[in-house]
Amino acid sequence: MADSDPEKAPAAATVDVTAPASLNNEPTKSTLQTLNARIEGLAGFEARGITRVLPSERQPASTSADAQVLLMWFSANISINNLAVGLLGPLVFGLGFLDCAMCAVVGGLLGSCSTAFMSIWGPASGNRTMVVCRYFMGYWPSKVPCFLNIILMVGYITISYIIGGQVLSAVSGGSLPITVGIVVVAVVVWVVAVFGMAVFHHYERWSLIPQILVLFVLIGCAGPHFDTTTESLGDAKTIAANRLSFLSLCLYVPNSWAAAASDFYVYYPERTSRLKIFLLTLSGLWLSFTLVYLLGIGLATGIATNADWADANATSTGALIVAGFGPLAGFGKFCAVVVAMSVIANSIPGTYSAALGFQTLGRYPKEVPRYLWSTALVLVEMLLALLGREHLFAIFSNFLALMGYWVEIMICIVVQEHLLFRRGKGYDWTKWEDKTYLPVGWAALAAFLFGWLGAVLGMYQVWYVGPLAELAGFADVGVWVGCGFALVTFPPLRYLELRVIGR
């Protein structure tokens, strides 16, 4: 079912978030149209795609809604794929516990602030994040970050499937293939993501309870093996470079939600406090990432003194998690299964937003219902995880660190457009498809590409080291240089664009 244009429709008194946007009014419906109408009429099903949510269609403000969205961010991110990021501090960058902890907390805060800033546009506009981006980067150039966001979400979710499969396989002692675990995770993600916002809010709320309980169990049984006295390796220059690289990595992961942040607030009242939305998002993200980062760092520090953990880590990240529950025997295996299922809560919002991203790419993709895009995405994610389970984890881990650069560059452009060129002018959110109203976007596109050039010059990856990264002592400064290039180039280019084109 195509999204209808709600700007031309009469305002309704109240509209449930699960109600279809509109149905085909032709006298005779095809079999596919009839099937589509029945699917979208299912209880709890969200049929709306990227069509703007009118102020009259929003839900009333409530404390329970605020708690629900905060818990969604927290539940979605206390997952083992984010815990695995913490492992990299001691194991890859050779940092001690204190250095790792400081980088994790500060990096998580910075990345969470970026996402929290992007979330404020949901209630104000009623538009999804990549639609909002049109107001800052233009109709056509905004499709570039939209496409990159789809790749980013699919990549992270593929890693989640693989780690979930590794844990389930390790729990069974290898008798359950990783492939079976991947399929189990993918099926649950598909069911919830297809139904949409209402159902996945319920899932996130209730899945939080067992997830947080087993993480505290893991802290209790594995915590005595954490070595908080470890020191960072290398000379002062090397340690400084590794601190910056790990801090940047800890920033990238919560920051990756920025390109989807508004999606989960479009049903909030139009005049909702921006500060409240910012703080709800920041609190849910920062608390969750701080918890799992520190837990991952602790596990990594124990590998040097715990032979069982070292052997398990040599097998897979999932096996290391299972080894952490080792002292609890059978109950520990049950806890490991619950932890494995945490990747589901992490994968559902990403799949949901990636499906909306496809609709944002153009008129024809918009005609395809959101639930079909969600189905296609889950199939792609599952196939990538199945086919690349032996090697794809390492490939995507390196690739996704690279993908983290563009999100901050995009945010730099959004901040500048809002503060320098839109101050006092406001936004007509009803014109989200009006190309004559939206910026042309050539200045934003040029600044985005210049930002990428800076990121390339400053990146420090396994397969490439930029010249500025070398000057910084082999530290990953890609995101910082990229943002600097975008900050310097966008204002003059945007001013020139306004003088020449006028919008």
Q: What does this protein look like?
A:
With 503 residues, the chain is an all-alpha fold. It has two domains: 63-393, Hydantoin permease (Orthogonal Bundle); 404-503, no CATH class. The protein has helices at residues 31-40, 63-77, 80-91, 97-119, 121-125, 129-132, 134-137, 143-171, 178-195, 197-222, 236-255, 274-302, 307-315, 317-324, 329-360, 363-367, 370-387, 392-421, 442-458, 467-471, 478-500. Helix 4 runs parallel beside helix 11 (236-255). Residues 1-28 have low confidence and may be disordered. Keywords: Membrane, Phosphoprotein, Transmembrane, Transmembrane helix, Transport. Residues 9-21 have a biased composition (Low complexity). One of its GO terms (biological process) is nucleobase transport. Residues 1-27 are annotated as: Disordered. One of its GO terms (molecular function) is transmembrane transporter activity.
Quaternary assembly = single chain
The helix content is 55-70%
Per DSSP E runs of 2 or more residues, the count of β-strands stands at: 0
Shape: globular
Calculate the mean pLDDT score and round it.
86
Going by CATH, what is the homologous superfamily of the largest domain? Hydantoin permease
Estimated radius of gyration: 23 Å
Write down the CATH topology of the largest domain: Hydantoin permease
Largest sheet: none
Strand content: under 5%
CATH architecture of the largest domain: Orthogonal Bundle
Order of helices and strands: HHHHHHHHHHHHHHHHHHHHH
Structural class, by secondary structure, is mainly alpha
Q: What is the top-level CATH class of the largest domain?
A: Mainly Alpha
Number of helices: 21
Could you list the spans in which at least 5 consecutive residues all have pLDDT below 50? 1-28
> How many separate domains?
2
First-last Cα distance = 33 Å
Biased composition (Low complexity): 9-21
InterPro entries: Pur-cyt_permease, Pur-cyt_permease_Fcy2/21/22
Main location: membrane
Pfam families: Transp_cyt_pur (PF02133)
